[in-house]
UniProtKB/TrEMBL annotation:
Record-given protein name: YfcC family protein
Listed Pfam families: DcuC
InterPro entries, A to Z: C4_dicarb_anaerob_car-like (IPR018385), DASS-Related_Transporters (IPR051679)
Top-level taxonomy: Bacteria, Bacillati, Bacillota, Clostridia, Peptostreptococcales
Keywords of the record: Cell membrane, Membrane, Transmembrane, Transmembrane helix
Amino acid sequence: MKKFRMPSAFTILFLIIIVIAVLTWIVPAGTYQYVDETATPLEPVPGTYEAIAQNPQGFWEVLRAPIEGFFNATDIIVFILVIGGFLGLVTDTGAIDSGIGSIVSRLSGRETVMIPILMCIFALGGTIFGMSEETIAFYVLVIPVFIAAGFDSITGFAVIFLGAGIGCLGSTVNPFATGIASGFAGISIGEGIVLRVIILVATLVIGIWFVMAYGKKVKADPSKSLVYHMKESNEQHFLSQKEVDDSSSVMSGKQKAILWVFALSFLIMVLGVIPWADKFGITVFEDFNGWVRGIPVLGTVLGNITPLGSWWFGDITILFLLSSFICGLIWRWKELRFIELFLNGAKDLLGVALIIGITRGIAVVMNDGGMTATILHWGEESLKSMGSVAFVDLSYLFFLLLSFLVPSSSGLAALAMPIMAPVADFAAVGRDVIITAYASASGIVNLITPTSGVLMGALAIARVSYGIYLKWIWKFLLVLFLLVLAILSVAVIF
């Protein structure tokens, strides 16, 4: 009997489109009145649902749905491709690798201190740009350092994997999770950022304590290691391959400049998406923008720049396109090489863009078949007897289960948000809270799901079996689950 293999996200999502199309023949069609028919997102008026004539979706509509999905999500898709190109350029410079290598080199001999520092760095990568596959290169660098210092391979593995994983769990501005979810929910990426920062800090503190406690126990008594039976084998494997290359840990001036551009780009993005004026009454960016535009000649040359705090995907895309050009000027690639790297970076995220289009096609079939309003109506009816705390807790559990089915965080966001965001309106729960629940749930599942290529690949590099990893991590995951659940519940109450 052949071993069962989980279908790809593309297959799962297309099958969902077919299932939804079939359901449009069965589920009653309906419609709502909306607060503003021209607004984005559409906000349904409670109690205005009414049944309409059935509009079942056929074979042609199933094939057309992903195409319309692409048209409906062009701003998000273009943003994903451009930021992919930007990351491709930064990766080619080796700036991030050299930066982390430099830190590892400087902290040699102080590996216990290295645990919180490196976990914070990888968490920043996870929360800012969804650092995941990019971590693979660091396991070979970091694990030998920790083994040489008297720790085990699990400690070195955990510093990287849990650091980046917790960062993705608390995705403050991660464009591939929070960004996509916010786009489909119709709100700014900056909304809910305070709650996500709280979750990030709380879970990271516990994660650092968990890894440090295990690491100190192993260093004090190596027999306490879960891979103690491989101690001699691991020392021979990792330490015999360890090579000291001082040049790799020395950052050039150009690499430092690239890192500054990288950091400032994401900082400006954060400042751009937080609704300073609308939510907090802070108009300093509007005032500055008006002052600059009022300067003769210069204001005209710069054009109608959107003030920080009012940015949407188009503005963020321009930012990273401009940052790509600046990186090109600093690194001085030849024109063809620059284009090649940018296109290769965008190509790496083409799969994400395709998933967004296909997933958006699910909403197209539901909307055209009149199912969306009916499902919202069922949600409205069920929420009459359910408080906001119960709703957000159940949503969190729902996202946990759905994350196993759709391991792609971007695919899950595009799949769930068109429905869950309007349902949250009926429960008097902010759409940003639902996005935070989704990101946290997806982050927890990605720490354990065997369908994660990063997890299984990292475990293979660390020479740790999946069974041993589960034995080591399950209590920590339970704590994360309960902690996030408590924070979400309190956030709804207050």
